[in-house]
Amino acid sequence: MHALSIPTWIIHVSSVIEWIAAIWLIWIYGEVTRNRAWWALSFAMLPALVSAMCACTWHYFDNPESLEWLVTLQAAMTLLGNFTLLAAAWWIWRSSPVADQKDDAPIVSSKSR
């Protein structure tokens, strides 16, 4: 546990707690609005949480070579999490009322010609 300083540990642990709180709050928001896209976002945040927990676990045990597979798992979860968050954001955008409006008016540039 000596691999990180106390302030760094505080940042790591508080970030994980904040991420869990964000997942929970987004889930509640999805319930209140009855919009399943927000529930999807809360699920899409889970791989990033797993990634953070891998990092904390690896550092907790002083970065041993025997747990180096956690580094690979962390990288994989970060990659997966980025894609799941992209998909969830797209789903939220597609489910928004603005995305449903079909505006046939041409786009006018603000630049004068």
List keywords for this structure.
0% strand; 73% helix; mainly alpha; 5 helices
The unreliable regions are none
Distance between termini?
Answer: 64 Å
- Overall pLDDT score: 89
Q: Name the helix and strand elements from N-terminus to C-terminus, one letter apiece.
A: HHHHH
Q: What is the makeup of the main sheet? A: none
Number of helices: 5
Tell the overall outline: elongated
Write down how many β-strands occur, each being a DSSP E stretch of 2 or more residues.
0
Helix content: over 70%
β-strand amount: under 5%
Structural class by SSE content: mainly alpha
> How large, in whole angstroms, is the Cα Rg?
20 Å
Report what the structure shows.
There is one protein chain. By secondary structure, the protein is an all-alpha fold. The chain has 5 helices and no strands. The chain has helices spanning 6-33, 36-44, 46-60, 69-95, 97-100. Helix 2 runs antiparallel to helix 4. The N and C termini lie far apart (64 Å).
Topology:
Layout: H1 6-33, H2 36-44, H3 46-60, H4 69-95, H5 97-100
Helix pairs in contact: 1-2, 1-3, 2-4, 3-4
Question: What's the gist of this structure?
Answer:
The protein has 113 residues and is mostly helical. It has helices at residues 6-33, 36-44, 46-60, 69-95, 97-100. Helix 1 (6-33) runs antiparallel to helix 2 (36-44), helix 2 (36-44) packs antiparallel against helix 4 and helix 3 runs antiparallel to helix 4 (69-95).
